[in-house]
Structure formats: C-alpha cells, structure tokens
Predict the 3D structure of the following.
Amino acid sequence: MVMMQERLVYQAFYTKSTCIVDYMVNKLMLESTDIIFEPCGGDGVFVEAILAVNEFATIDVCELNDGAYQMLLNKFSHYANVHVRLCDTLLDSALTFSADFGGLYDKIIANPPYGAWQDLEKRAILKKMYTDLYAKDTYALFLFRCIELLKEDGILSFIIPDTFLNIHMHKALRHHILTNTKILELALFSSSFFPGVNFGYANLSIITLKKAGNKSDCINNQFKVLSSFTDVKQLSDIREAELSVFSFTQDEILANPDYAFLIATNIGITKAINDSKLKVGDIANCVTGFYSGDDKAFLQVNSFDLRNSKNYALVNTDSINKEYKNIPDILDGIEGEKCFLPIVKGGGTKFLKQECWFMDWSKKAVEHYKSGKKARFQNSQYYFQFGIGVPMISSSRITASLIENKLFDQSIVGVFPIDKSYTCYLLAFFNSPTCNKLIRTINPSANNPANYIKKIPFILPSDEQKIFIDLVVQEIIDSIKVDGVYKEALEADLNEVIKNIYGF
Ligand SMILES: C[S@@+](CC[C@H](N)C(=O)[O-])C[C@H]1O[C@@H](n2cnc3c(N)ncnc32)[C@H](O)[C@@H]1O
C-alpha cells in the first residue's frame, strides 16, 4: 500500500494531473462493495488512485493497445481484485451482453480517447452500433457505451472535451444523457490544465452522472456547472465562492435549441466561438517573430529610461537606417554603417508603440541569425511587413499595436491581414474587451500564442462600421505620433462598436 502511494506521488509529480484524478475519484463516492470499470486503462492512473483509497476494490480494466495492456498487467497482476483485459471497449461482446442486461458496474471512470483514428471497417461497424452518435469524436461513443454499462444508480465520471455540450452533431448524445441519467456535476476548465495532452480542443469538462431509469427523475434533476477555474488545484478543493457556479434543471436544457448546454456567463461568448463562420486565422496570417539568439550582443536601445534596458548598449542614432523599406534584399542584411533597424517587442501598449529598440541588421549579423543554434529566423517573409503585433503574454488583458513595416520579436504574434483594409478594424478589435472575453474563454491562461489567436471568431463589420472604426483608429494613431497623446475616450467609442458587432 505504501509502495503504491509512493508510486502515485511520483506519477502525480510527472503527470501533474493529480488534482483532476483526485477530483474524479472523489466524485465516484466509492463504496467497498463497488464493482468499478475503467474502459480505457492507459497507464492506469485511475486504477492506482482507486487502489490508494481502497486496496481491495474490484476493478475491471479494458485496454486496446497491447503495449499499454502489458504495462497494466505488470502494474496490477498481483492484485486479485483487478482484472485487466486486452479488448475493444466499444465492440467487445461481453460488454455488449452486460449492457443489454441493464449494466454491470456501480462506478465507471475514464479519460477516453477523444478523436481516435478508426479504420474504415471499424468505422462502419461503429456507425451501425451507435447510429445516432457522432462517431468521429470517439469520446462520445465511450460515454454512451459506459452509460449503458452502468447499473441503475451507478455513477460515472468522465474527462472529455466540452464540445458535446453544444455542437449540433452531439444532439442525440445530449438527449440520451438528459433523459437517462441525473447529472451530478459538470466542471469546465481549460485544456491547459491537462498537461501532456495537446489537442485542438480549447476546453475540457468533467461530467459526473448517475444512471436513472425513471425519466421524470432525470428531467427534474438539478445540477451544478462549475467554471472559471484559474488553477487546476482548485479542482482538489472546490470553493464555489471562487468560481462561476450555474444551476440548471435538465428540463431547462432540454428546452434549449438542440438541447445545447448554454452555459458561459454571457451566452453570446460561447455562441460566437461555436457558430462563427470565420476565425482570425481565416482572414490573417498569425505568426511568431524573430529571435537573434543573443539579444545582449545584437539588440540596442535608444534610452535607458526604458524598462529592462540596462543590459543593452545605447544605439548610435547615425547607425539607424530609416530607408530600409526600399532595400530589395533586406532579408540578407544591410551593407555599411546604417545597419540598425527598429524592432517591436512585447509589452502591453495599445495601438502604437514608440520606436525604442533596434536590431543589428548588418550582413554579418543576419548570417548569424540564419545559422546560429539559438537564433530563430522564423516566418521571415513577414518581417518588415505592415501588420499588427499581439504580445504573447498579457498580464491583465490582450493588447495589440501596429507593426509598421518593422521587425517583430518572438514575444509577439504578428497578425498580417490578408486583406490589408481590415488592419484598423483588427487593431481596434484586439484592444477591445470583447476580444479579451473571447480569447480568455478560448484559453483562460494569460498566454496568447498564435494558435489561439487564430481561433478567435472574426465577424465582418458593416461598411458603415468599418469606415467609422478606420477613422477613429487613424485619429488615435495620429495623436500618439504627433502629440504623444493617447486619446482614451476614442477607444471607448471603438469598444462600443465592436460590442455591437459581436453582441457582447
Ligand atoms: C487518453 S488515454 C487515457 C488513459 C488513462 N485512462 C489515463 O487517464 O491516463 C486512452 C487509452 O485508451 C486506449 N483505447 C483507445 N481506444 C480504445 C478502445 N476502443 N478500447 C479500449 N481502450 C482503448 C488507448 O490505448 C489509451 O491507452
């Protein structure tokens, strides 16, 4: 037992998902007589966590992959109460038999595969077996299958993407859940809480439910949705005061279009993310910027008053090249003394950053950037282009400023609209609270890497709105350039228009 716990501690350290595992095991409300099922054993984290609570728990484990199966055997064959089988949970006939006779299990816990590849033959069989379900999201099949495998009043806890709550394809699954089970709790959080799993899904959910044969019990059941988690640790010590907590009856959800679980504090946010036809990635190229490999050697600053400037050399104004836009092979570097070029770096300045930082762009330096091990001469086709810079890390809210044909460093995501006429609109949008709500729903952490920025819904403004925004943005920029004054009141006007366009 002590050995097992020690191993758990170590594994917890490496996988960093102990909080998730503990939360789910807790939700099962384990009893000593329970027969438990783990339908996709993997490396056995759930089995270990259950055994740590009750060393004599009866657990059936299925695993499709032979390597994982052998590892599970190694781990658990000395437990007479743990039965590991090499089989396909979705097709296995012994399980089908049990499901047909009202289920076998008191508790089921799983982190099923989300979009596992199925060969054509298997896909055809699955489609036949699970007619109404969206078979491409394999987790939906596992969830359905496992609800069938639960005994009456049996409890299940699954960690799965939150897409089943809203997307049209999962309508039948939602109906099945809402009319055959009582949801006990739904926890929603960012997939970044789940280390080592890198998938396109922005958010994850843990659904815990109890099987119930009586439909009206199901419909009248009231359940809580917990969201706005900022740290995975909050899962192991749920304090509702720190979270957004919503309460619904299943009847209410069944009354929504497509039985969708419309949950976000502001429904418009979820809807915009789910329904928007265009995303920022469809209308703009979003790319990470340049790194010299050794900024102390190559980067210079025009004033030591600037934050974090002390370790850099002061740039000689005569070495700054102001005509670089006309140099044809600029990506090969510049001959002569005037070889320092402006570069845009991170930092939360809106609309326009002052020119403060300059990069050595001599032929020799550029050669180093292209071959140096630490240097990143990435996405160079976007260097010195007209676009927008969004800092990768934003402490309070997302910001954006113009990249006016400058270099931009790797702490910035450069956004280059394919149709340049949308530059001002995008600039206003990225600086708006509306955009901040969207990106923080897509990714609750303070990071804005290119892949998340690409996923932000993009809504085309009307001609009138676009003309207005272009004028106001231009006025803000001119005022910063000419007088160094940032006209905050104008930003409020922009935010209002963006709010109208997006509906929140
Ligand atoms: C996402 S992993 C989860 C593993 C484990 N439950 C955990 O949380 O660490 C999914 C596991 O399910 C297995 N698997 C995939 N399809 C399966 C199927 N049809 N039947 C049984 N196991 C399956 C995979 O081999 C993999 O080990």
About this structure: The longest helix spans residues 463-483. The two ends are 53 Å apart (CA to CA). The chain has two domains: 2-263, 280-502. Residues 1-16 have pLDDT under 50 and may be disordered.
